[in-house]
């Protein structure tokens, strides 16, 4: 090749490599364009099947996809990136992105080359950006890069038909790819609703790397490698393909809690739960050496210096040690004369200083060489969880348990930005972008936010997708991507290239915290909810819109709320000792904190005439409060049983109490006399207890996972729900009678809602499984047509149970989709609801994968019988009119 590529040596035989690469790239693109058929190239029989379930797939591939086409699809951008710029090549590239991208994805996926797909399209996008290519082509290439990455890095890629059946309908309508391909589609499911309209597409990859929590990750300076601890090893991943390119699996890697990668990617530092810390020399063949001296134990924070010559390590005794990784570099420390235990440590951008955060709310910087403090420390108000340094200057940012982020200059000791707010949980991790323009934060609230460092405005987020608290966030070196890891065992990649700093987002989402309690208004037109962050919200039932609040006078989580029967008042309590009564129209805190209990108050209920509020407390008292004055009227009960739930009879004369020790008793509301009980009802705390509408029965839900129905006059047990099958498999936290008394509903820590026949205890409806976390509270609507439930997953769900009014009592019926499904195999197809599985597939009762829903949208999906989702962000539904799916899927697209 030296001869033929040298014009001076080869003369007429000279081969211009740029021209030849352009010729080959053009030939590859023409081969792709000429492939037949141009849709469903392997005639895949059904969208219900994963590719691995197509029995004769290898034969189909061999018959339909030639080796030349495989080569063209795999290597066309390799030639493109080395080619000269020609108008004909630009035209072919445009044609590819506008018309043949989906066909190319079919070929790449079926030939098991999808792991390379993202880098292939990114290479084409780079070529468009660097050449004088029309802007609309470059934008199409950029959108295609994200589309391919989302498909390649999620379970949807297990089924090639869902390039069309799932990816296209969920791609935002405003994006160039949708404009190019949706006009050719018909018979696709149509996601509709406010959650779809407001969606900002950011999540582009999800990698399940561990069955345990992933506490930290590291990214190399060139952005090509990511290191993460997995279940029993440390893996180095290619950030484009998601493939593990290097692995260390031995005894020392079984309980790794922290990892860091050197800037050049040649070394990985890690520490384990037993206090040992090591350096894995990736470049020299995998040698693992001990990092700390014998007898010195590490903590949960490791970081490399900018030049990779030192590692700062938090020690188990609370100090910091600076370890040298070369003969010509000095070690320093351990620094142990600190006022509190170190939580996080980081080097400054120039490596001359290190900063750390402390349990005692302090952030401090030290000189690496002298070991002396730099500037003045910052004294905060809450424990510091994470610190990070700006790559461009001396700024230090940190996140705290008070849910905020602050930016500090150690030279002056002044806060230069913040507090930045928006999170509803402690901020566990923070990171600057490499250009210093943005700060990303991850929180216990399972979301990520990105802030503009000039204004402090939220410019992206909350980013949703993780299902547990987020432990680490890191920007890519070019600041276009954000990497995160979580206790959910995943690493996720987010697109942050398209941030619009001119359009700041709301700082706080209406429901950004776990919802603990929910109640209908007497009219049934509104709902009041109480959240873990101490806020109260009032919602319109028909629209799901916030009509009042958030009300913020509670300083801690709201444990119980109730509406007065006339809708004029709202009562609330929290895990402080005060009750509050709010004006149901204006939201005014009418009396301020109503004091009397000396321990937290988990339950409040209005009397039917709205004149008094009943409260039960862990202080073993039940008290009655005058609504008009806010004063205590009487104390009904003073004993040795902590009260965790109360209910009041429809006539207002009796109060039922559920206790921490598993007993139930009924009190006279006026005199406090014990009328029934104590009943040894449950083996554990009774979290919820209610009267039936006629006052003749009680229902209770307990720590022992059972729902039981009692005679309210005698205390005799009448029914144990689920005794013959269908019982909850975790704590029952809330119960409710239907207005007609025929049914009982329950919500549980097992994430489900269930409806029972109150006469025989048989399961009538459910389990309803849309919630992804603990179901904390449920209630029937006043007209009995709906159930409402709220959850730690930050959603309120309304369930249509109107069929209960007409179906024969005692017949076990589980309601499904009330739509005409063209692919119904038999009458039983609609007998059960569609459910999302762990990978995001919506699956019917036969196990058919109907459609894949992106993880950032799943919590907003209302699948019948879940009629709506309230969360302050809107919900969406699946419009299936004319849906072509299953063996009809090949009718959904015309190339």
Structural features, described:
The chain has 895 residues and is mainly β. It folds into three domains: 7-181, no CATH class; 215-443, Methylamine Dehydrogenase, Chain H; 515-815, 7 Propeller (Methylamine Dehydrogenase, Chain H). It is 13% helix and 36% strand. It is built from ten helices and 60 strands. The strands form 16 sheets. Strands 2-29-28-27 form a four-stranded antiparallel β-sheet. Strands 3-4-5-6 form a four-stranded antiparallel β-sheet, with no helix packed on it. A four-stranded antiparallel β-sheet has the order 7-8-9-10, with no helix packed on it. The longest helix has 24 residues, at 87-110.
Which value, in Å, is the CA radius of gyration?
31 Å
Relative helix content: 10-25%
Q: Can you tell me the number of structural domains?
A: 3
Through-space gap between termini: 41 Å
Major β-sheet annotation? 4 strands, antiparallel
Structural class: mainly beta
What is the highest CATH level, the class of the largest domain?
A: Mainly Beta
Order of strands across the main sheet? 2-29-28-27
User: Could you say what the CATH architecture of the largest domain is?
Assistant: 7 Propeller
Overall residue-averaged pLDDT value: 89
Number of H- or I-type helical stretches:
10
Protein name: WD40 repeat-like protein
Organism: Rhizoctonia solani
Keywords: Repeat, WD repeat
């Amino acid at each position: 090749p030296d001869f033929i590529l040298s014009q001076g040596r080869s003369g007429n035989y000279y081969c211009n490599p740029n021209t030849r690469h352009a010729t080959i790239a053009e030939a590859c693109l023409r081969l792709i364009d000429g492939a037949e058929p141009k849709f469903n190239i392997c005639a895949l029989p059904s969208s219900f099947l994963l590719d691995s379930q197509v029995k004769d797939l290898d034969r189909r591939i061999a018959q339909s996809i030639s080796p030349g086409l495989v080569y063209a699809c795999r290597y066309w951008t390799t030639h493109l990136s080395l080619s000269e710029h020609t108008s004909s090549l630009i035209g072919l590239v445009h044609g590819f992105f506008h018309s043949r991208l989906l066909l190319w994805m079919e070929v790449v996926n079926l030939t098991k080359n999808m792991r390379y797909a993202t880098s292939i399209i990114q290479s084409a996008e780079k070529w468009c950006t660097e050449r004088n290519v029309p802007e609309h082509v470059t934008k199409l290439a950029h959108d295609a890069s994200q589309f391919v990455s989302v498909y390649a890095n999620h379970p949807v890629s297990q089924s090639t038909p869902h390039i069309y059946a799932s990816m296209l309908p969920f791609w935002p309508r405003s994006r160039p790819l949708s404009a190019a391909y949706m006009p050719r589609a018909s018979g696709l499911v149509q996601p509709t609703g406010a959650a779809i309209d407001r969606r900002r597409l950011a999540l582009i990859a999800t990698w399940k790397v561990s069955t345990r929590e992933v506490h930290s990750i590291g990214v190399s300076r060139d952005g090509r490698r990511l290191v993460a601890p997995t279940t029993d090893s440390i893996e180095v991943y290619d950030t484009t393909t998601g493939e593990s390119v290097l692995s260390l699996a031995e005894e020392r890697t079984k309980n790794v809690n922290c990892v860091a990668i050197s800037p050049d990617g040649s070394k990985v530092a890690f520490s384990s739960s037993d206090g040992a810390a090591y350096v894995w020399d990736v470049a020299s063949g995998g040698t693992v050496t001990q990092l700390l001296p014998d007898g010195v134990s590490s903590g949960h924070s490791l970081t490399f210096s900018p030049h990779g010559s030192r590692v700062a390590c938090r020690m188990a005794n609370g100090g910091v040690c600076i370890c040298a990784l070369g003969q010509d570099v000095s070690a320093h420390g351990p620094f142990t004369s600190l006022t509190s235990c170190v939580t996080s440590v980081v080097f400054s951008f120039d490596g001359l200083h290190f900063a750390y955060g402390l349990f005692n709310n302090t952030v401090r910087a030290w000189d690496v060489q002298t070991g002396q403090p730099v500037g003045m420390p910052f004294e905060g108000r809450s424990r510091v969880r994470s610190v990070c340094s700006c790559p461009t200057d001396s700024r230090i940012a940190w996140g705290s348990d008070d849910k905020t982020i602050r930016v500090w200059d150690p030279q002056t000791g002044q806060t230069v930005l913040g507090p930045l707010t928006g999170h509803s949980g402690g901020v566990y991790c923070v990171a600057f972008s490499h250009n210093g323009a943005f700060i990303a934060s991850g929180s216990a609230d399972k979301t990520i936010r990105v802030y503009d460092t000039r204004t402090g405005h939220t410019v992206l987020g909350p980013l949703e997708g993780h299902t547990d608290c987020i432990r680490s966030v890191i920007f890519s070196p070019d600041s276009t991507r954000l990497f995160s890891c979580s206790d959910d065992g995943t690493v996720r990649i987010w697109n942050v290239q398209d941030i619009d700093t001119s359009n700041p987002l709301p700082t706080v989402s209406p429901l950004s915290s776990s919802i603990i309690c929910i109640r209908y208004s007497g009219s049934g037109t509104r709902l009041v909810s109480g959240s873990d962050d101490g806020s109260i919200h009032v919602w319109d039932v028909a629209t799901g819109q916030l009509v009042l609040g958030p009300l913020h006078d509670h300083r801690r989580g709201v444990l119980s709320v109730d509406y007065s029967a006339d809708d004029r008042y709202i009562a609330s309590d929290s895990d402080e000792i005060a009750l509050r009564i709010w004006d149901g129209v204006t939201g005014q805190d009418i009396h301020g904190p109503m004091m009397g209990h000396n321990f937290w108050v988990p339950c409040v209920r209005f009397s039917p005439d709205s004149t008094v509020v009943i409260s039960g407390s862990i202080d073993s008292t039940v008290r009655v409060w005058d609504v008009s004055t806010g004063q205590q009227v009487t104390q009904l009960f003073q004993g040795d049983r902590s009260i965790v739930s109360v209910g009041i009879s429809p006539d207002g004369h009796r109060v039922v109490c559920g206790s921490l020790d598993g007993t139930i008793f009924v009190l006279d509301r006026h005199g406090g006399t014990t009328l029934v009980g104590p009943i040894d009802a449950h083996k554990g705390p009774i979290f919820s207890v209610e009267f039936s509408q006629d006052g003749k029965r009680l229902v209770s839900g307990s720590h022992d996972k059972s729902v039981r129905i009692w005679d309210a006059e005698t205390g005799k047990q009448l029914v144990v729900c689920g005794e013959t099958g269908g019982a909850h498999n975790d704590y029952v936290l809330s119960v409710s009678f239907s207005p007609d008394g025929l049914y009982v509903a329950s919500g549980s820590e097992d994430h489900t809602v269930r409806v029972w026949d109150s006469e025989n205890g048989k399961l009538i409806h459910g389990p309803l499984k849309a919630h992804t976390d603990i179901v904390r509270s449920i209630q029937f609507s006043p007209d009995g047509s709906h159930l409402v439930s709220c959850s730690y997953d930050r959603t309120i769900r309304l369930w249509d149970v109107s069929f209960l009014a007409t179906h024969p009592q005692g017949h076990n019926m589980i309601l499904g989709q009330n739509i005409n499904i063209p692919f119904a195999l038999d009458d039983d197809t609609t007998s059960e609801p569609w459910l999302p599985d762990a990978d995001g597939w919506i699956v019917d009762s036969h196990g058919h994968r109907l459609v894949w829903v992106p993880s950032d949208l799943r919590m907003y999906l209302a699948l019948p019988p879940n009629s709506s989702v309230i969360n302050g962000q809107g919900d969406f539904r699946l419009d299936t009119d004319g849906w072509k799916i299953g063996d009809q899927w090949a009718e959904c697209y015309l190339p």
